[in-house]
Amino acid sequence: MKRKTGVLFGRLMRNIMRSPDTIITVAITPIMMMLLFVYVFGGAIETGTDNYVNYLLPGILLMAIATGVGYTSLRLFTDVQSGLMARFITMPIKRSSVLWAHVLTSLVSNALTVIVVFLVALLIGFRTSANLLDWFSVAGILGLFTLALTWLSVIPGLTAKSMEGATAYSYPLVFLPFISSAFVPTETMPKVVRVFAENQPVTSIVNSIRALLYEGSIDNNLWIAFAWCVGIMAVSYFFASKLFKRQLV
Fold first, then answer.
1. Residues whose CB falls within 8 Å of the CB of residue 121, separated by 6 or more in sequence, listed in order
2. Could you say which DSSP state residue 20 is in?
3. N or C: which end of the chain has fewer CB within 10 A?
């Protein structure tokens, strides 16, 4: 299975590398949002930090990943509609390899996008006191978040009837950080909005990353973030697998 998955993964990565503008396009919106908030709105937003880009970056990274997983749906949708998926299924390979190749491609391509966003953040003043263990923890959280959203993206990729339908689900995910602690402290929000913001997955993930990068208090946020990511991934994997098996009948 590993060898077959590797071959299929290589096919998808070659397509991306032949058109690197995909990664650049995914990174553009989060980077533009980061520049907008840092240089236009940052001076008017009170977060209790000396450097607003430090406060902002975790949410921007999640936006970049949410944008990137939309391409996973699109690639999967293209394979299904072109008949390529049906051909793979008839070949002597483990059928789950087809899905895992798309998932691994999403993981690697989104990691490249995150690196691009990090580099831009460094250029505009991002600084961190994180040690190596903290960085590994941040990478782990971002990886789990990517896997969770990627398995979620498999569902519309398999069921959508149009290209627009395959990618439309990612739009709410991209804007979910706006109703969280990603851009402003939740304490400044109206009560109803605050209740939602403090109990949705992005807030705990953002708070965990922020604490790891800047020596903050992680409290229970790390475990809540882990639970959200694993829960979303498990549920999405279950339904994605069911839909995929239904296509094989």
1. 34, 53, 57, 60
2. T
3. C
